[in-house]
Design a protein that fits this description.
Strand order of the largest sheet: 4-3-5-12-6
Structural class: alpha/beta
Order of helices and strands: HHHEEHEHHEHEEEEHEHEHEEH
Largest sheet: 5 strands, mixed
Distance between the termini: 56 Å
Number of helices: 11
Amino acid sequence: MELRLLVTFEKVASVLSFTQAAAELKYAQSSVTSQVRSLESSLGTELFDRLGSRIRLTEAGERLLPYARQIIELTDEARSAVVGAGEPSGAIAVGTMESLTSYRLPPLLELFHHRYPKVQLSLRPTLGDETRHALRQGAYDVGFLMERETEHAGLETEVLAEEPLVLVCAPTHPLAAAHGADSLATGDLASVQLVGTEPGCPYRDLFEEELRVRNGTPPPFMEFGTIEATKRGVAGGLGVALLPRMAVREELASGVLVALPWEPPFILHTQLAWRSGKRLAAHVRLFIEQSVRLVREQAAEASK
């Protein structure tokens, strides 16, 4: 079994698409198909069931996949050991979400761009469940999560920081009068127009569930696709939104938005995760170490 065939098989098995695998490996699709056929021929068995435009692993493919991953990881480990103290290099597929990419990761991305130019970072925008699934399947090397839970089946996790949330509105909003009050009750939000990102966003889902439990009815949400669009909608007086404090720091400082005195009954943690038992290449370990350092420093500075 040639290593390049195993690499191609592992990528197709991870994304379950010859087309996507070809794009990520920078091969022609016909080359990916040919390599998988060659591997199947050498093993004397089919590794994928072809179901029209969809594929899935056969039992033989399921048995081969963990071995293929071990061989690939050991090869990367051996290469790193031989290269030794040379300049870090290699590709890293990183699962992340918009709020972290925009407000937590820029210093990390700048560091790798300038100091470690041979480390190729590929950011994949996904939310919690999708990120965890991709990590377990090997489609991502590491993934950033913002979750209440800090332990996830099949994954190793490093908690980077607690992520404060704040309920915000425009200064002209009727609830803005409560800005200086001691507290705002959850019941006071029962009939308020809420603005938020799409379902699946962890703080949006937890906020919605809390309002449903406390007030007995599904809250009215006006959905926006991004945090920036959500902030603009709130600033325009369309409603209130629960957002990470890091995402609205400038707007609060300038007075474009005001913080309402409502304390979320849940705490979210920004985390970095990878598949349990995965042998981490040197450049991936470096990425994890720098992520832990920079995000923790950033969070500590913001809390002062």
